[in-house]
Design a protein that fits this description.
Length: 64
Amino acid sequence: MPDFLTPADVARLLQVSEDTVYRRMGSLPGVINLGTEGDLPKRRYRVLRIPRPVLEKFLVENAA
């Protein structure tokens, strides 16, 4: 079973904000969204868990 990371963990590793992690990784295949799909007027509640292999693949594909 893969090791799961929180957006805060990934943000700390990549030295970016948590919002950046949500934007860039929220829709990647393999990322688990445990939050809700809120409708107006309720705000969406997002809880992501990012498997380490997904993060590694993202880093390889986006290396500059």
